[in-house]
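Problem: given the chain below (114 residues), write out its structure.
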Amino acid sequence: EVQLVESGGGLVQPGGSLRLSCAASGFTFENYDMTWVRQAPGKGPEWVSVVTSGGDRTYYADSVKGRFTLSRDNAKNTLYLQMNSLEPDDTAVYYCNPDGFSTWGQGTQVTVSS
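Solution.
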């Protein structure tokens, strides 16, 4: 059974930083590209970033480029999202997802507010 457990969210002031984690199990983590998606209140899902299975390439939405860094540790089956220079528009529930799977975790809430 595929399980995805996101953590690391919280309340942070504008300009602050957070590091999200996604612990994955139930599939061969190292074989899959991994994506972060977020959903803000009252809005649809927004793709944030993707990392290739080997971790050698990452891609970002324009809205987060230069501020977020995606990485993975295949030995630990864990995905990370380092978020710097956070803005109020980054407020959302953040979810990780392996490419091609319809399984989602519970997400982790990020709130950026003064």
